């Protein structure tokens, strides 16, 4: 029988131990998107009725709400990141895509932050997405092209106490609509959910407080800002500012 020297045996045992310690577990993650109005749950069964009041005091209804989530990213403390493939068009109106499981696996362990992008960043916004084209999600070329970040439509009671429509649509802020539009400021939003440790299949429960779109730091008066907001770069920048506190991480189930 062939003998193995003690030093060699030690090296083999050490190699085996390191191999076991470096074992990587892969798992899927799921993101659930829930909605509320300052803490009161909102679903599509609450739509099409004047039942909400924004921070300015406008009474309003929600008739359509859908928005895009992309570039879900897991950040390690050493700077390494895992960017999950795909994007998700959350359609609250039709109760579709409220749950999203990216095809990319992540490794278990500690993460210093999990983030996602509301809308597309500028690079991704220039790509062509067949499903989003079919979903009427395109922004006209005269407004810079690309895609919406959000379509939020409803009615409100105006100063004459009559119902009037509003279209709170978020896109990339644009000036000089036409053949040569310009972009004064990025208006996609990177949402940071904070640190977490993943031990197995994890479900992230994300909350959107719809009321925040009208609240902080810009108190939104629908009598003044209700339609034609897409070519209004100042309005788009205000939406971006208000959107900084719209999303939060409610819980992580594992």
Features:
254 residues, 4 helices, seven-stranded antiparallel beta sheet, disordered N terminus
Concise structural overview:
The chain is mostly beta strands and 254 residues long. It has helices at residues 6-21, 122-125, 130-134, 233-242, and strands spanning 26-27, 29-37, 40-41, 52-53, 59-60, 64-75, 81-83, 87-91, 99-100, 106-107, 109-118, 150-157, 163-170, 189-198, 202-209, 247-253. The strands form four sheets. Strands 6, 7, 8, 11, 12, 13 and 14 form a seven-stranded antiparallel sheet that branches.
Describe the protein's architecture and organization.
Residues 28-226 form the Copper-binding protein MbnP-like domain. This is Copper-binding protein MbnP-like domain-containing protein. The protein has 254 residues and is mainly beta. The chain is 14% helix and 36% strand. The protein contains 4 helices and 16 strands. The strands form 4 sheets. Strands 6, 7, 8, 11, 12, 13 and 14 form a 7-stranded antiparallel sheet that branches. The N and C termini lie far apart (50 Å). 28% of the residues are buried.
Shape: globular
Distance between the termini: 50 Å
Helical segment count: 4
Number of structurally distinct domains: 1
**Structural class by helix and strand composition:** mainly beta
Number of strands: 16
Give the rounded overall mean pLDDT: 92
Query: In which range does the helix fraction lie?
Result: 10-25%
Order of helices and strands: HEEEEEEEEEEEHHEEEEHE
Largest sheet: 7 strands, antiparallel
What integer value in Å does the Rg equal?
A: 23 Å
Spans of at least 5 consecutive residues whose pLDDT stays below 50 are 1-21
* Strand content bin: 35-45%
């Amino acid at each position: 029988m062939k003998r193995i020297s003690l030093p060699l045996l030690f090296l083999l045992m050490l190699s085996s131990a390191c191999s076991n310690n470096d074992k990587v577990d892969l798992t899927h993650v799921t993101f659930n998107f829930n909605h509320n109005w300052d803490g009161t749950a909102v679903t599509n069964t609450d739509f099409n009725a004047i039942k909400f009041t924004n921070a300015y005091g406008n009474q309003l209804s929600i008739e359509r709400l859908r928005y895009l989530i992309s570039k879900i990213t897991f950040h390690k403390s050493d700077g390494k990141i895992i960017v999950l493939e795909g994007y998700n068009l959350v359609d609250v109106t039709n109760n579709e895509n409220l749950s999203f499981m990216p095809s990319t696996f992540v490794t278990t362990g500690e993460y210093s932050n999990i983030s996602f992008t509301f809308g597309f960043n500028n690079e991704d916004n220039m790509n062509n997405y067949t499903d989003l084209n079919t979903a009427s999600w395109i922004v006209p070329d005269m407004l810079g092209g690309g895609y919406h970040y959000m379509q939020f439509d409803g009615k409100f009671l105006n100063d004459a106490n009559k119902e009037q429509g509003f279209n709170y649509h978020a896109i990339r802020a644009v000036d000089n609509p036409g053949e040569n539009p310009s972009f004064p400021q990025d208006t996609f939003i990177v949402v940071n959910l904070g640190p977490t440790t993943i031990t197995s299949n994890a479900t992230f429960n994300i909350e959107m407080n719809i009321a925040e779109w009208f609240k902080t730091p810009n108190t939104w008066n629908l009598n003044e800002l209700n339609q034609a907001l897409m070519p209004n770069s100042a309005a788009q920048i205000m939406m971006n500012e208000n959107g900084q506190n719209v999303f939060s991480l409610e819980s992580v189930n594992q």
